[in-house]
Specification:
2 domains; disordered N terminus; four-stranded parallel β-sheet; RNA binding; disordered C terminus; globular; four-stranded antiparallel β-sheet; RNA-binding; alpha/beta; S-adenosyl-L-methionine; 14% strand; 221 residues
């Protein structure tokens, strides 16, 4: 008897398709509201791979050679043109073609040079317009991308990073350890508190509060 082993063919991943009905609805709605700007917005929405993997450079271990290499590979600065608030210390790059940089490994004692994140997650950080010396609370901080981005913008007098989920809290601590130099750690507090109670427990403590609980979808490391 001859036994023939049949190998199951690996299932092919179906490429995500843009729903034409939805896009047509958006076309009618937002072309009226946004005018000529809609063409740019549409291109961005229909090409998510070009903005999902932004490269945020770490100013505490600035990668000059990597920055040159990014330019050679066709990356461009995320912040182009005039913005109400855009610190020169924050450097973030995007590829004009779908491309993802490899993540750096966590090494105790060595600061990473860059952080991968969805470019959209920087918008609430810029909206805070953080200034040197201000006290800021990142209420749902894990995995740490926006806390890190805040520190690229300014030197806060006090940064409180809170995460209620214990598993994500460990991820947050590792992110801060991987990117922030030891002297700056003195102005950072990490906690595992219920955010609903922090206002009563620490009234009038913070100048600004960042609350955005969707990092499971938009942040990567």
């Amino acid at each position: 008897m001859v036994l023939t082993l049949l190998k199951a063919k690996p299932e092919r991943k179906h490429a995500k398709q843009i729903c034409k009905v939805v896009l047509d609805h958006f076309e009618k709605q937002y072309s009226k509201e946004l005018g000529d700007a809609w063409n740019t917005v549409r291109d961005i929405l229909t090409s998510p791979s070009c903005w999902q993997y932004a490269v945020l450079l770490n100013r505490f271990n600035y990668p000059f050679e990597l920055e040159k290499d990014l330019h050679l590979k066709g990356y461009h600065s995320l912040f182009q043109g005039s913005l109400p608030y855009c610190p020169k210390s924050m450097k973030c790059y995007l590829s004009r073609t779908p491309h993802r940089m490899p993540s750096e490994r966590h090494q105790i004692g060595n600061l990473k040079k860059y952080y991968l994140l969805n470019a959209a997650s920087l918008l609430p950080v810029l909206a805070l317009e953080l200034r040197d010396g201000e006290k800021v609370l990142d209420l749902c901080a894990a995995p740490g991308g926006k806390s890190l981005a805040l520190l690229q913008c300014a030197y806060p007098g006090y940064l409180h990073c809170n995460e209620y989920d214990s598993l994500r809290l460990r991820w947050l601590r590792q992110t801060l350890e991987s990117f922030i130099p030891q002297p700056l750690v003195n102005v950072i507090k990490v906690s595992e508190l219920d955010g609903r109670e922090m206002g009563d427990a620490q009234p009038e403590t913070f100048d600004k509060v960042l609350l955005l609980h969707c990092d499971r979808l938009i942040d990567s490391q």
